[in-house]
């Protein structure tokens, strides 16, 4: 690992500042307010990464809604998706006949979104849509639609604002590209 104790030293460069993220939340919140008016959507945050985005996004939505969380993960080893999506904590709400909006920090290979869409559709949700802060299409494997997103990102590993590497760096308030040397120093182990 890096010798530094300062988390910002592991960042190659800042991709989106706190102000950029705030503007994305405002724009998406406006759009979702219009699209979900009168639908009482069930807005589901995907733990753990989406927690930060979820709390900012729903406060920009002027819509009566219900909130729930699901804990799903597939990046145990950090950089590469294991391809196996694990459901650790399920939602409590019954989704039958509900308009469900999944909130994600990032859609990358699409494995996680596909898993959740299939599960919620099987349970009888009326609609399942996804709002992701970031949409990374370069490594997309599953055919999924990211209905709403803040920004497209290149094939770079990003951290901050909920996005982690080895469950670290989620608390960085902006989004940055992780230094390649951080990934390399861990992949040799
Ligand atoms: O499109 P995919 O390739 O499936 O990648 C996207 C998913 O991976 C990350 O979660 P992760 O599994 O790392 O769990 P975490 O949210 O707890 O970090 C991220 O928060 C998305 O849920
Ligand atoms: O670029 C990423 N950063 C953090 N977590 C992720 N999960 C999928 N892609 C990423
Ligand atoms: Mg993760």
TrEMBL record:
Function: Purine salvage pathway enzyme that catalyzes the transfer of the ribosyl-5-phosphate group from 5-phospho-alpha-D-ribose 1-diphosphate (PRPP) to the N9 position of the 6-oxopurines hypoxanthine and guanine to form the corresponding ribonucleotides IMP (inosine 5'-monophosphate) and GMP (guanosine 5'-monophosphate), with the release of PPi.
Signal peptide range: none
InterPro entries: HGPRT (IPR050408), Hxn_phspho_trans (IPR005904), PRTase-like (IPR029057), PRTase_dom (IPR000836)
The enzyme's E.C. designation: 2.4.2.8
Taxonomic lineage from the root: Bacteria, Bacillati, Bacillota, Bacilli, Lactobacillales
Any one GO molecular function term: glycosyltransferase activity
Record key words, sorted: Cytoplasm, Glycosyltransferase, Magnesium, Metal-binding, Nucleotide-binding, Purine salvage, Transferase
Pfam families hit by this protein: Pribosyltran
Coiled-coil portions: none
Location (main, coarse): cytoplasm
Cofactor: Mg(2+)
Pathway: Purine metabolism; GMP biosynthesis via salvage pathway; GMP from guanine: step 1/1; Purine metabolism; IMP biosynthesis via salvage pathway; IMP from hypoxanthine: step 1/1
PANTHER family membership: HYPOXANTHINE PHOSPHORIBOSYLTRANSFERASE, HYPOXANTHINE-GUANINE PHOSPHORIBOSYLTRANSFERASE
Annotated source species: Lactobacillus colini
Keyword Cytoplasm found: yes
Compartments, record wording: Cytoplasm
Catalysed reaction, written as an equation: GMP + diphosphate = guanine + 5-phospho-alpha-D-ribose 1-diphosphate; IMP + diphosphate = hypoxanthine + 5-phospho-alpha-D-ribose 1-diphosphate
Sequence ranges assigned to domain Phosphoribosyltransferase in this UniProt record: 18-165
Protein name: Hypoxanthine phosphoribosyltransferase
Family: Belongs to the purine/pyrimidine phosphoribosyltransferase family.
């Amino acid at each position: 690992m890096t010798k530094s104790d300062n988390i910002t030293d592991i960042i190659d460069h800042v991709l989106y500042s706190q102000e950029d993220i705030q503007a994305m939340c405002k724009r998406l919140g406006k759009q979702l307010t219009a699209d979900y008016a009168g639908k009482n959507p069930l807005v589901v945050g995907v733990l753990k990464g989406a927690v930060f985005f979820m709390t900012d996004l729903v406060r920009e939505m002027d819509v009566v809604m219900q909130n729930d969380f699901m804990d799903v993960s597939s990046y145990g080893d950090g950089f590469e998706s294991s391809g196996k999506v694990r459901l650790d904590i399920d939602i409590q709400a019954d989704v039958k006949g509900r308009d469900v909006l999944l909130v994600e920090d990032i859609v990358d290979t699409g494995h996680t979104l596909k898993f959740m869409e299939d599960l919620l559709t099987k349970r009888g949700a009326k609609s399942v849509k996804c709002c992701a802060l970031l949409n990374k299409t370069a490594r997309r494997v599953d055919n999924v639609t990211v209905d709403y997103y803040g920004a497209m990102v290149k094939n770079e590993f990003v951290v901050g604002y909920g996005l982690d590497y080895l469950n670290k760096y989620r608390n960085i308030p902006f989004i940055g590209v992780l230094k390649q040397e951080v990934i390399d120093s861990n992949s040799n182990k």
